[in-house]
Predict the 3D structure of the following.
Amino acid sequence: MIREDTRVWAYCLLLLSTFLVVIVAQPFGAFGAPEKQLVVATWGGAWTKAEQKAFHEPFEKETGVKVIDVTSVGDRWSKLRTQVQSGNVEWDIISNSGLAEMYRNKDLLEKVDYSIVTNTANVAKESVGEYFVGGVFESLNIAYNRKKFPEGSHPKTWAEFWDVKKFPGARSLPNYGMIGRFGNILSALIADGVPPDKLLPIDYDRAFKKLDQIKPYINVWWTSGSQFQQILRDEEVVLAAGWDGRIMGLVKQGFPINIEWNQGHAYITSWAVVKGTKNKELAMRFLNSVLDPERQAVMSKEMGGCAPTNVKAFGYLDPAEGIKLGSHPTNLSKMFKMNMEFLAEHQKEIQERWEKWIGK
């Protein structure tokens, strides 16, 4: 009887040990929680929802890795610096920040591992950097009211935007963020006859002298994208300089607004991996996935006016929609690309000069 009981217990222990081996061998995700996760610092709202559909969900599906969003807007770089310097890194990836910020804070970022990030063949060359890869193209352009300027009678250059006699009407320029200040200075120089490839180094005296001419005719110095759209919707102004995505958003909503691509200031926002992340290889795989043309096309569809950095993405877009995006070859050829590395190096100088002038 004792021998029989011993055999039963031995059999039970064998079953139990086999079961435990099976459990240990299973990935953690098989029991309802992911084995790994990536934390992305993003912008929140509609932008994050678009990123989720375009990039996060496909990556989760193919890897089993959970992508977690953390909204961080105005203070993301100060928060990140605290994390890196303390060694308590909470984020893995920075989503779609401007290249100026990337250059200025590259000490907080990992160098891109291009043995993993390989989807670069058809991506805009300036968006494939040492510390970042391209997210989307954006641009600063002239927006105009079609009722005031029908059938192509609107200003098509910055010189014409400055011409208040030939093109009368209330105007607006940005007073928001470095792109706004830098854009106004460059627009003024172009309006004064400086070719786009001769803008740097900046001739500040010439730029602000030209800005003095337009200043009395600026009804609104807008400070946010939503304000920019509102003053155009309400016809508070009939001409304005603003972001292409915001302009095209109004076009799609049926407002009598349109965009002029000529002499637009094109620039790129990018993705980067946080220095000190414990998920470096996985984060690099994610960066590679955001360069996928089909996924960039989804981002463009979900976030109207969001132009891809991978030219192959246009093959996944309706041609009638693709032609409305800033990085479409037809539109991009009419614009010039902003030197964001220069902007990063001269941010303090530009900001101080702008604030002194706008405060007069």
